[in-house]
Structure formats: C-alpha cells, structure tokens
Amino acid sequence: MKFSEYPYHTIDVKQAKDKFRKIESQLVNAEDYASFKQAFKDLDVYKKELYTQFSLCEVRHTIDTRDEYYKKEQEHIDEIAPILQEDLVRISNVILESPYRKELEKEIPSTYFLAKEFDKKCFSPDIIEELQKENQYSSQYQQLVASAQIEFEGKKRTLSELEPFMKASDRSMRKKATKAYWGWFEKYEEELGEIFDSLVKIRTTMAQKLGYKDYTEMGYYRMYRFDYTKEDVQTYRKQVLDTVVPVTASLFARQQKRLGLDALYAWDEKVEFQSGNPTPKQDARTMVKIALHMYQELDKDTGEFFQFMVDHKLMDLESKPGKAAGGYCTSFDVYGAPFIFANFNQTSSDVETLTHEAGHAYQAYASRDIFPSDCIWPTSESAEIHSMSMEFLTYPWMKDFFKEDTRKFYFQHLSDAIKFLPYGVLVDHFQHEIYAHPEYTHAKRMETWRKLEKMYLPHKNYDEIDVLERGGWWMRQLHIFMDPFYYIDYTLAQVCALQFWSRAQKKDPSTLKDYKKICKLGGSLPFRQIVQAANLKSPFEEGCLDETMKEVQNALNAITDEELQ
C-alpha cells in the first residue's frame, strides 16, 4: 500500500476514551500476568492505530497547510491530544503500580518505565486547557511561516524558495534576497512576538501549576532527558564556547579571505566559494534514484529500507506553495513505515536533508518491531545521532550528486558541522534565559538573543538588516516555538556523528556495524548507553570536544583554498 492509500479517519474522542477505559479495566482486574500482558499488548496495538492517524494528519496538513480538511483535522487533534493524554497517564500509573510490573520489566526496555515516570511529572488534568492552547499557538506559528509569499524577481516565493538566491555567487543578488527574506520576519515581527509570548506564558503557567519554579525543569522532563541534567548542559555549553568558538571564528575569517571580501556580511555567510556553492546536478526525482543506488551499495539492509521508501512513495521532497517549512521524519507504526518530508530548493541542503532524514527513517525502519512501540524512537539527542551520522557515512557517494563540486561539498559540509555547534548551544542558552525570565518583553527577548549571539557567534555582521541587529534571528527557528529545549540535542549528536566520520575516514571496519547496531536498538536505551553501545565517547566527557575539533581542523586544513576556488 502506498502512502496516498493509507486510510485516514477522524478520531472520535468518546470512542477513544471508552477504548482506554476498557483496557485500563483489564489491566487493573488482571488475575494473572498472562492476562495483564495481553491487555498491555492491546494497549500498544491501539496506541499504534491512534498515533498513525495523528501522523497521517500531520503529514497531509504540512504538505499543504491550505487544505481546509486537514487544517480542521489538525485543529481537532490539537484539541483532543491533551484530553487523551489524561487517559494515557492514568493507564501508565496503573502499569507503574501494578503487582505485575516486575515481570513486565524482565520483558521490555527500561526506558519504557523511565518515560512513563517522566510523563507523570509533566501532566495533570489541571493543565489540559494550557496544553490545548500550546498546540493551537504552535500550529499558528507553523501556518504563518508556511503562508509567506514574498515578491522576488518577478514571482511570489516561499521562504524556502528564496534560499537559493541567498546563496547566489552574485553578491548583489544575495543581498537583495537576504533583505527580502528578513523583511518578511520584520513585517510579521509583532505577530511572531505575540505568538511566542503566549507560548512562554502558557508553558510557565503549566509548570507552576505542576509545582515547578519555572518551565525549564518541566521542559527537561518533557524531553525525556534520562541521564543528564541542565548542569551537564551548562558545562557542555561552556566547553563549546571555549573550544569550538575560536575554531569557527578562524573558519569565518578563512571564508572572508577566500571570497576576497573586506567584511563578511549577513548575505555573505551562506557562500563559501567565489565560484559559488556546490549544488546537486539533478532534479528531486533523479536524486531519489541516485540515493536508492547509494543505499543499495552502502549495505544490504539500507538498500532494502530505501527501496521500501520508494515503492510505498513515503517521501514528499519538493518545495511548493502552502507547504510547511523545514524537513522532518515521522512514522506510521501500523504499517512499519517511516516518512520523509522536505523542501528541496536546488541547493546542497537537498542532499543533506535527504541523507539526514533517511538516517532517522532507517532507524525507525530498523527498530520497527521493538515492543512496546513507545520504544521504537529514541530520545531526541540519540535520534539525531542516526540522522547526522548518515550524512557522513554516505560521503563516498557524494560525487554522484555533486560531480565536479564534490570536494567543495566535503569542505562545506564538514565546516558547517563545526559552525553549527555554537549556533546550537546559542539556541539552547537563549531558551534557558527566556524560561527563567517569562516576564521579559519582546524587546528584552530580542536584546537577550543579540547579547548571547555576540558570545557564541562573534563574527556576525548585521549591517543594513535592522531586525537582525536588534536580535531577531530566533524568530525563524521553529523549535524555539514548537519544541522548547529541543536543540542542544543536535549538537550532542553532531559530536557523536563526527566520531563516526573520523572512524569512516580511518576505514574502521566496525563503523557501519556499530551504526546499524544503535539504529536497531531504537529507544531501548538512554542516551549515554546508546553512545557507549556505538563505541563512541560521550560529548559530556572531558577532552571529547577537544579531540574531535582537532581531527576536523586537520581535515579542513588539508584542503587548500586554491583547490576550492
């Protein structure tokens, strides 16, 4: 069955609640472990059905946010999901307190119980209304950004469609496109600021109702941070500041020199080479064909996985009007099928997105039979290891996409991996400040971003772009609105992925084997144990960042700027 044929139906909240009550009763009244286990299996089957419908709606809504049917359905789900969460948390409590728990613990991953304990810490019927509002404002942000239509070069374009012009080798074109892009954010600044203010206040209210001082602690529980704390994150941010920021500063200085510029402005940052950035030489359909060949050559299992994605049409890759921004991977657990969503725009990020989201999708495919289905996906910082590492493990095939630009792609991709780390910790640091001070005005939030930006990204030059000089970059980062505290995860995973890159460069024969092993593990272990299982060093470990940076620097220094012109 192809994606377009997967049936969707509106979730009837009364029927769903009745189903949950019936299962709850069976769990409570189970006379032996066998009947308890059967009720637990029934719960898993029903949750898979429910979440498959949620995912189908999300994908079809984000493919075209103008489609009234799925827009209404998404609004319905935004409203009922918190109501059903009450039932799910209640059932989890029954399982956690059951006399049969010890027997169940012998059969399923410990992360299941950890996650349910964390769910208890961030839910109460008292916050259902706030959870509904949080969903509504998140959807409002997504729809507003997706609705952007910017008149540029004689045509209305989405934000994603402006990006190739922002990377043009013609500097005046870049400047014009960058100003048009940020002009949209300036135009809607008040509305974006109000949406975010509502989200911060709603999240703070939820946290206070649950007995927390502010949202941060609750946010960590919601992110299922099983084995590290905000103090660990704070120490790690300091390491990035001390170890990585000087490296990125030298990379930006090298970029400015290579481009022959007097200064590196906001509209220059996305261009690495005078002759222009590396671009894929194919359209989306051809790129998928090349990717299929690539995954078949990489390994039998990755080949089988990508063939499945192609056969079942489980990808929507091209940018179009009304389509939500960004890229993501989700799954339809009833069908054991992942799905890749992207916005291709004929830049190198098309290939990066295809390999990144395919890393997520391969993991979901490899671990699709894990029971219970709650443990198919790992926590986010672990999930990003699979996606970011796949970007590096596919390096030998980049020549098929980039042809004569391949060496330029390697340099750009590797240097971007390093340049990303300070930005990633900036996004995290900003959110810690914002939720510690929910009373901040929009202007104060802008000021806070700019102050932190000067710490982590000291090279930034926002001359002539007022909204950025005032501290407005964060308004384009959808995670800040929709997934609070989900960002440091990318940087932790990047440090792990760079270790896979290093092992692949050294032709370590166990590299792919270890990668596949952790994909198969899915969400059955917490972050630090997954890192250990992959034979990697934890990013929190002293010396890990330093060692990783040195290896990458050596690789980048081995490529001369003359080769890159």
TrEMBL record:
TM regions (residue ranges): none
Gene Ontology molecular function terms on file: metalloendopeptidase activity
GO-annotated biological processes: peptide metabolic process; proteolysis
InterPro entries according to UniProt: Pept_M3A_M3B, Pept_M3B_oligopep-rel
Domain of life: Bacteria
UniProt-recorded name of the protein: M3 family oligoendopeptidase
Protein source organism: Faecalicoccus pleomorphus
